[in-house]
Design a protein that fits this description.
The chain is of the alpha/beta class. It has helices at about 5-20, 65-75, and strands spanning about 1-5, 25-30, 45-50, 60. The longest helix is centred in the first third of the chain and has 13 residues, at about 5-20. The chain starts with a strand and ends with a helix.
Length: about 80
């Protein structure tokens, strides 16, 4: 799973993972413009975008239940 806030860092880390011959990626993208950085890899393994870039062509996307997770965490702490 890859989490980053900068597009250039995102591109470099994905390249590094691809070099390790990974089977797939779960990516919390740095922005809704996933893959827009000039140094971004052209070919990716199967990739799922989490919480961003919904409807991005060529990628499956999922949303996490952030509200529910926060609620449960607070209830646990109270």
């Amino acid at each position: 799973m890859l989490l980053t806030k900068r597009l250039a860092t995102e591109a470099r880390r994905i390249e590094s993972l691809i070099a390790r011959r990974i089977d797939g990626l779960l990516v919390v993208a740095a922005s809704d413009d996933f893959g827009a950085h000039p140094g971004f890899p052209e070919r990716l393994p199967p990739t799922v975008l989490v919480d961003r870039a919904f409807g991005h062509p060529g990628f499956d996307t999922v949303a996490s239940a952030n509200f529910e997770a926060a609620y449960r965490g607070c209830r646990h702490l109270i």
